[in-house]
Amino acid sequence: MKQSYYFSDLSASYDAEINDLLTDSEGKSALKTRLKEKRQEFKSILPMIEFSPEMVIPVFYDSMSFSNPKAMAAAVMCEPDDDDFPTWDALSSIVTLESWAKPLLDAVLAERTGEEFMVTVACLEFLRKFDTAKPAPEAETEAEDDHESESKGDDDDGRDDDGRDLAEAGDDWLADQGFDSSRS
Questions:
Q1: 25 lies in which domain range?
Q2: Residue 173 banded pLDDT, cuts 50, 70, 90
Q3: Nearest alpha carbon to residue 68 among 91, 86, 89, 94
Q4: Does the residue 100 lie in any domain?
Q5: Would the pLDDT of 154 be above 60?
């Protein structure tokens, strides 16, 4: 999947952080426990969103689903300083956040750089889930199983909730955001 330099660089850092959380010193799976610890420490690590976002992003691990993959793919090609970098307000319309993560979202949005951080979180979570060019972490299924009962699953039949073709819905959304929806 094509990515801007910003997301490519941060994606590698985020993947490294997740890999660090996967196992304990004995090689046993620790992702679920370590994510829980990070979420409990959220207030103390929140200031890091400005200088080390990859250390904070794991608190949102597996908290998002995406109704418009084509629009998300366009978002990961943007740089924060570009005029076409999406706002959280625009992106949040295609991102569904798990209910357990909403208090975390509120705390982030109260920060000066919170909106940009949430766009970054959404884009990196999208890449983690859908960038097939990179291998998935080995213990990822444990965290997915943990939240499976909380989420109602994504239908990946190529249609949105209204039965429209996702590519068509993506083109419509891109056009509404001012993007040229005819580009790939």
A1: 5-142+156-176
A2: low
A3: 94
A4: yes
A5: no
Alpha helices in 95-184 (DSSP H): 102-109, 114-130, 140-148, 166-176
Q: Which of 125, 169, 119, 158 is nearest to 143 (CA)?
A: 125
Task: Round to whole Å and give the CA distance between 135 and 160.
Answer: 27
Burial of 140 (C-beta count, 10 Å sphere; 0-12/13-18/19+) = middle
Please report whether residue 98 resides in a domain: yes
Please name the residues in contact with 172: beta carbons below 8 A apart, sequence gap of 6 or more.
Answer: 181
Asked if residue 147 is part of any domain, the answer here is no
Burial class (CB within 10 angstroms; exposed 0-12, middle 13-18, buried 19+) of 160: middle
pLDDT per residue as tens digits for the range 75-125: 999 999 989 999 999 999 999 999 999 999 999 999 999 999 999 999 999
In a domain, 167, yes or no: yes
Domains held by the chain: number: 1
Task: Tell me how far apart the alpha carbons of residues 81 and 6 are, in angstroms, rounded to a whole number.
Answer: 10
